[in-house]
Amino acid sequence: MVPGVRYDRIDDAGLHITVDGESTVLEVDTIVLCTGQEPRRGLYEELIAAGRPAHLIGGADVAAELDAKRAVKQGTELAAAL
Ligand SMILES: Cc1cc2nc3c(=O)[nH]c(=O)nc-3n(C[C@H](O)[C@H](O)[C@H](O)COP(=O)(O)OP(=O)(O)OC[C@H]3O[C@@H](n4cnc5c(N)ncnc54)[C@H](O)[C@@H]3O)c2cc1C
After folding, report:
1. Tens-digit pLDDT profile for residues 17-54
2. Which residue's CA lies nearest to atom 17 of ligand 1?
3. Helical H runs in 1-82?
4. Whole-angstrom Cα distance, residue 55 to residue 45?
5. What does the alpha-carbon distance between residue 55 and residue 49 come to, in Å, rounded to a whole number?
6. Please, which of 13, 63, 70, 71 could form a disulfide with 37 given CB 3.0 to 4.6 Å?
7. Do residues 6 and 18 lie in contact, with contact meaning Cβ atoms separated by under 8 Å?
């Protein structure tokens, strides 16, 4: 893991990054982008449509980025309320 990275570009040489103002190239063959999330609510919507009780929390509620604490909080509060 490299903190404080700016991703500059991807080309045949690899992944160009800047760390602390210094440019460098990571000579990689494969780059996996984890740059976004979307909630999948299919099961929730099916349950609600069938008239079954269902609750939406965590990543299924809002798939934001660094929000695991919110997911845990929602799960804890819902469990306590049930
Ligand atoms: C690449 C990446 C990096 C992240 N980094 C951070 C970070 O550094 N800090 C941070 O706070 N958050 C981070 N997050 C966000 C964090 O992962 C989420 O906020 C959190 O995991 C949401 O928790 P959750 O329990 O709602 O969902 P999840 O953790 O996604 O758990 C849902 C679970 O339900 C299971 N499931 C799905 N459908 C069904 C089904 N039909 N039946 C049974 N089980 C099912 C899934 O397999 C999964 O195990 C990151 C997310 C990603 C994708």
Report:
1. 999 999 999 999 999 988 778 899 999 999 999 999 99
2. 68
3. 42-49, 58-61, 68-81
4. 10
5. 13
6. 63
7. yes
